[in-house]
Amino acid sequence: MPKNTISLLIVILILPFSKSYGQYLISGHIDGKEKNATVYLSLLRYDEESLISDSQVLFSTKTDSLGYFRFQGQLLSQKDKIYRIHTNASDTNGLQLVSDIDKSNYHNFIFSNTDTIFFKKTKDHWFIRSKNTNTSDTEWRKLKLFEEQLVSEYTNTKNKEAKRQTVNDFSEKLKSYSKDSIESSLVRLLAFSRIKTNNFDLKTDFDNNPQFYDNLLESLKADYTQKSYYLQYKDELSKITNEIVLQKYKRHRALNYVLGFLVLLLAFLSLLLFKRLKVALPKNIKSKDLNSTLTNQEEKIAKLICDNHTNKEIAQILFISLSTVKTHVRNLYGKFNVTNRKEFIEKFKNQP
């Protein structure tokens, strides 16, 4: 078999595997004066743009005499993730992040196992000019430019209330831009990270407008299944919802305390009013015209009692039986709430 045919077969066999697994390439230059400087490649969480630690580092390499470095392989994720390229002027200083106008020693970017990024050589700066094939990274750069425009609009705000409104406006515009102009779920997650770190009242906004946050969760779930950024964001939302539930519970508990206090106060006032009415009740009865409740016969017998006539004498005077007189006397005692003749006479004479 001809050598050309064999080579063609090898290419045909290798090509599907190369597409399946992909191969990344990260390369570029830093200042040529920094010979044999260590360059680090790190994997970041979505909220670690300005955080640096040894645990983030994936690989490291040394620059050559011209300041050139290179990372290449198939070991990165097929999904878009956030990486950092980073170096120090001196290894003795350990891992440090320097970001200013004059000099920056790192660059964060979105990348996958099938992408390439090249950092062009600059005279005094490191990692400033780069060319990345990842489309999500392009969206992230546009998001950063949009943020910078918003920040420039609000820099002169000094009033406290105006600053609070500025934070709300910034966050709402960032949410709107994220929803309308960004396709990548990871870049929308990075927009959320900026909102979160901007003193925005996330709990209230999530409670009132959960759709933005829920849509982002579903988008991350579709892109990252049950892993990495999806789980990080889900955990973030769980903290927010737990705080909302706890806040509502405290508010309801405080309301229950207030209502309980009001119930006890009303019960106390009712008891106090009842006692006053109970004390005033005999006076009301005493002043009531009981004579108006007496029958003609009872009134005659009452007057005869007051004239000190006995029951027998009353029976003779009114031409009724003694037992009838006794019955009327018992009824009179009951109406006047007395038990003997003396009490009855005193109470009857005091009536109007």
Automatic annotation (TrEMBL):
The keyword Transcription regulation appears for this protein: yes
Sorted UniProt keywords: DNA-binding, Membrane, Transcription, Transcription regulation, Transmembrane, Transmembrane helix
Domain HTH luxR-type: 287-352
SUPFAM superfamilies on file: C-terminal effector domain of the bipartite response regulators
Presence of the UniProt keyword Transcription regulation in the record: yes
Official protein name in the record: Response regulator transcription factor
Superkingdom of origin: Bacteria
Residue ranges crossing the lipid bilayer per the database entry: 254-274
Pfam families named in the record: GerE (PF00196)
